[in-house]
TrEMBL record:
Domain of life assignment: Bacteria
InterPro entries: DUF3000
Protein name in the entry: DUF3000 domain-containing protein
Compositional bias annotation for Basic and acidic residues: 1-13
Region (Disordered): 1-21
């Protein structure tokens, strides 16, 4: 009910009823079943990026610890968008902590970007105009905080245009599943199915972040 209310609020923001294609795409997001380690909930969507928007937050959970977290936003502009080359756009942020040694790998940004594109391709998804950044940051503690171990974090920000199917509706179920595959991979979870055994994941970080 909260998710549906959020969608209706976005529709009221534009002063019109949400288009059927957007409603169908959101409903698919709301009803997708995911692996049990990933907790997903609706959150407030940005209101200035497109006439219609819907957002989800997710965390990869191990007991009371979050191994990785992220946000996925579905944007829709019925008039189309030149930069998107379509009427829908998916925007994401994925974050996880990792070992400092892994963060020092010069190939890490390229590898993380390939995880995103590989997750989409593994589910046979067609998409266009991908763009994004991979950022790694390290924190070192001094003085009164010197007892804390150094910490490193990887952050993936990206967007892409999903191919629209029947009725102009993209397969948001599959796109959400591929995004969760990326989250699980960054978190260091083992592959969900035997068919994913070729996927290489990040080693699980030294200490999961408490929730």
């Amino acid at each position: 009910m909260d998710e549906q209310k959020g969608t209706e609020e976005e529709a009221r923001h534009t002063g019109s009823t949400a288009p059927p294609a957007f409603t169908a795409a959101v409903e698919a997001l709301r009803t997708t079943r995911l692996r049990p380690q990933i907790e997903v909930e609706a959150t407030r969507a940005p209101q200035r990026l497109a006439p219609y928007a819907y957002a989800l937050e997710a965390a990869v959970v191990d007991g009371d610890d979050d191994l990785a977290d992220g946000r996925l936003v579905l944007l829709h502009d019925p008039a189309g968008h030149d930069a998107w080359r379509g009427t829908f756009r998916l925007v994401t942020l994925v974050r996880a902590e990792l070992e400092p040694e892994m963060a020092a790998d010069p190939l890490l940004p390229e590898v993380c970007w390939s995880w995103l594109t590989g997750a989409l391709q593994a589910r046979g998804l067609a998409y266009g105009e991908p763009s994004g950044t991979v950022t790694r940051a390290s924190s070192h503690y001094f003085g009164g905080l010197s007892a804390r171990p150094s910490a490193s974090q990887i952050e993936i920000r990206a967007s892409w245009t999903p191919r629209e199917g029947l009725g102009g509706v993209p397969d948001t179920t599959a796109h959400l599943a591929s995004w969760c595959d990326l989250l699980a991979q960054v978190a260091g979870l083992p592959p969900a199915t035997p068919g994913d055994a070729s996927i290489v994941t990040l080693p699980q970080r030294r200490g999961p972040q408490s929730r």
